Amino acid sequence: MSTAANLLSWIASANDHPDFPLQNLPLGIFSPQGQSPRGGVAIGERILDLKVACEAGLFEGEAKAAAEAASGDSLNAFFALGAPARRALRAALLELLGEGSPALDRMKALGEALLPAMHDCQLHLPARVGDYTDFYVGIHHANNVGKLFRPDNPLLPNYKYVPIGYHGRASTVCVSGTPVRRPVGQTLPPGQEVPSFGPSKRLDYELELGIWIGQGNKMGDSIAIGEASEHVAGFCLLNDWSARDVQAWEYQPLGPFLAKNFASTVSPWVVTAEALEPFRTAQPPRPAGDPQPLPYLLDAQDQAHGGFDIELEVLLLTAAMREQGLEPQRLALSNTQNMYWTVAQMVAHHSVGGCKLQPGDLFGSGTLSGPEPSQFGSLLESTFGGKQPLTLANGEQRTFLEDGDEVILRARCRREGYASIGFGECRGVLLPAKA
Amino acid sequence: MSTAANLLSWIASANDHPDFPLQNLPLGIFSPQGQSPRGGVAIGERILDLKVACEAGLFEGEAKAAAEAASGDSLNAFFALGAPARRALRAALLELLGEGSPALDRMKALGEALLPAMHDCQLHLPARVGDYTDFYVGIHHANNVGKLFRPDNPLLPNYKYVPIGYHGRASTVCVSGTPVRRPVGQTLPPGQEVPSFGPSKRLDYELELGIWIGQGNKMGDSIAIGEASEHVAGFCLLNDWSARDVQAWEYQPLGPFLAKNFASTVSPWVVTAEALEPFRTAQPPRPAGDPQPLPYLLDAQDQAHGGFDIELEVLLLTAAMREQGLEPQRLALSNTQNMYWTVAQMVAHHSVGGCKLQPGDLFGSGTLSGPEPSQFGSLLESTFGGKQPLTLANGEQRTFLEDGDEVILRARCRREGYASIGFGECRGVLLPAKA
């Protein structure tokens, strides 16, 4: 088992690493100091430089082709190769980076050039995003938000049949660490009939799972539910920044637009399906009486293994907390078990009418809140529409985000008998609106 | 004046050409027979091959840089150069292709290699579409459709303040001539509470103006209304195919998704602002009592010249008509004067919150219906929601599109004292749903 707890790496920092033990091996794009972007693999506190590894001849066969595709300045070509190539690369990496590596001497001789320290490297967006689609599969979020926007009609009749999604903006998907500027826009102040214009006053985060698409399909074709998982290249965290006041005024009848398109932040590492295998679950149970998915969304294997048990966390670090030397404070802890639809159902639905999915397309799950307030994945929910401020440990209060606030998403998988793995962080600090 | 009626070309087919006289000079991407895609300029029944023209040294200075940027397999690099480069190229083309061209002998010596016949060439999508945004600025369409979906509330309160738009699917923007497959999907039959799954039964076209974005802006910046026109690289026709039954069931609360993302067809030629200059108008007058645009959408120059007088036409060619040897039948004749918001207002609004616009991004205007039934730009409107079938000249009836129907969009500009120019065609034939 490539995910067993007892697998160790000869790179000491990988063993018991909270995010990147040998069992994880997520891929990303990074620049070593003073050098150009290239593909790499996170291992403990280091990154395996795939460009250097390829040049040193560390891979053979299908793994070599996969490593070469992943060694450029984006992972799109690697995603396009599909799941078998990814698995071949993983097998080779487990051998190279594991205890008793047959290439240990050659790798040690390459030193920092092959395995630079992660903190010396700059991390980039892992792929050029072709299209970005945001789903809405967090049913507790849909219920909570529905109550605020439509008190008498929170969950619309289509919700339990259709994996609801909408097209987002690809050009402003940015990597963790990119500062986000508070947007200006039109809003309708309460009780007014004429909109105001200015900086958003209700700026929010959204805690989401991100899904990177692999091979995809041609226009006019579709991806069957039974094959959908093979078209997923990997997973990340996604913060779908949202200007709630802009959203409330603009979103009818065609959906969110400027309220969401100023920034969406993703974590830099692409965690693979193979690394997540021990944390698979059945599709989370649905409330009694809910309808069966329509046949094109129903697959026995997906019902049995299409869910994930991934802890998702939002933390906040305010400007004052930074000055006071405080650690980020957790605002919510949720889980991917709150997804009403599986990732395979999202892929099958998206493509069923012939929409072309391409390597490097990005899906967001939608906000994954749990049923309890401590599990709410947005401030809109945690403050009940801005009506009940949160009081932070240092005495500060928040209804929505203030300038200088840094939002940090984390994800971790734990299971008895398996090494824990993590996603790394998805961070973004909020800059003041432009004067 | 580079647009005066009396300018003639030494290429005979250009003079009095309904679409592509010397005054137009639209750019596109094409493949000469057996050769790779490259940039070209439509002139009469021919295409000036920019790759061959560059290799022959026909350009100098800024025009040379522009022609080189436009000679690759997409126009993105050319769009990125911005308006001054585009104007320099136009000035050079007018001289090269006009009567008394100083390079006449060299060009004639190059013959078909420089100026292949358009009907021998394959036309491609002119640019890689980064993001595609569809607006909703046709106020008569918004009213007509609003009445069908929300009889008591056709035009929402935000319509006259916000240039409503939503993100569409970039991966399925395709060039004229690409067959479109009827999508399958979920729909809710009238009177039912459980959705059905199958081929869309209410497949429709939408008559839109397409807008190609030029230089664009960085994430977090915005484009002021006074500068917005400089960020438009050109114009085309756009058919935003729509599955109305899918749309009605899925679109709440986040907007159209599978109902629109299976295909959007554009015409291959990018008509420039310079060619359209004589057909500029003031922003079309708004109904008395309508609010002023907010200051970020208000610019004196745009108010005076931000409109266009472009005739827009939808034609239908059914399978039976093709067999009978009939010409396509006009279904509607409309005009860009039906835009409630100008193109500059769309650009300024889209970017005001910091959304990054990039060279090759595509906007659709939304369906540009006029107030009269003969001006309705979709079957949804022309058949009053499918309730009043259209009877065609050959006796066939249509509520929505049938397999084998070909939808053809055309656009033409006419003004006394100026040469007429056209956009060429935007065609697509509907294939049956996949078995």
Automatic annotation (TrEMBL), chains A, B:
Keyword Lipid metabolism recorded = no
Which residues of this UniProt protein bind Mg(2+)? D240, K260, S264
Binding positions (Ca(2+))? D134, E206, E208, D240
* Pathway the protein acts in: Amino-acid degradation; L-phenylalanine degradation; acetoacetate and fumarate from L-phenylalanine: step 6/6
For this chain's UniProt record, which GO biological process terms are given? homogentisate catabolic process; L-phenylalanine catabolic process; L-tyrosine catabolic process
Q: Where does substrate bind?
A: Y136, R150, Q247, Y251, T367
Which stretches make up the Fumarylacetoacetase N-terminal domain?
Answer: 23-126
Its EC number is 3.7.1.2
For this UniProt entry, the molecular function terms from Gene Ontology, in alphabetical order, are: fumarylacetoacetase activity; metal ion binding
Domain (Fumarylacetoacetase-like C-terminal) spans 140-427
Active-site residues from the entry:
H141 (proton acceptor)
Indicate yes or no for the key word Magnesium.
Answer: yes
Listed A to Z, the keywords are: Calcium, Hydrolase, Magnesium, Metal-binding, Phenylalanine catabolism, Tyrosine catabolism
Q: Which cofactor does it need?
A: Mg(2+); Ca(2+)
Source organism, top-level taxon: Bacteria
Family indicated by similarity: Belongs to the hydratase/decarboxylase family.
Q: From the Swiss-Prot or TrEMBL record, give the protein name.
A: fumarylacetoacetase
Source organism (scientific name): Pseudomonas linyingensis
